[in-house]
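User: My instructor asked us to take a sequence, write out its structure as tokens, and then describe one feature of it. I'm not sure where to start. Here is the sequence I was given:
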Amino acid sequence: MASWSDFAADEPRLADGIRLLLQQYGPGFGYLATVRADGGPRVHPVSPIVTDEGLFCFVIDSPKRRDLERDGRYALHSFPAEESDDEAYVAGRARPVTDPARVARLARSFRAAPHVDWRLFEFTVDVAMLTRREAGSVVGHGRPAVQLWVDPSGGDPAAVAELRPARRDRAAA
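Assistant: Let's start with the prediction itself. The structure tokens for your sequence are:
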């Protein structure tokens, strides 16, 4: 499980591209997928925070917070861009931030409402992907440029397996 900082140090241009898409409308906006208790997916809009320290999110008391507390697996996808069909995707594990000084510093910096029942989570990075399409191209036509980073220390093999392109059998082609 790599921290956002570890990922950004390993692939700074990819991390910057993902950060720009997550923050294209201001402080951060994306869709967070979590795992429900029955194993199904749950998706909610969130405001992720990307700093030099890491990738974070303040999560109010909600089903998504209970999902993260029970099973930290997550996927985060950028909100669709107005000017392109570019996409950013990050997946890994969320863990609660328990250091009161760190929580207070990030809450002050990002103006988290003091009287709201929220918890701060840090998102580790097992997989990061940035997909860029040429301006004016029609989705599905032409090949997008895809940059993929997989945590070299292993990460979550299930999250990685889904993103690897399937090998084509040349005899079947």
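For the description part of your assignment, you could build on this observation: The longest helix spans residues 12-22. Try explaining in your own words what that tells you about the chain.
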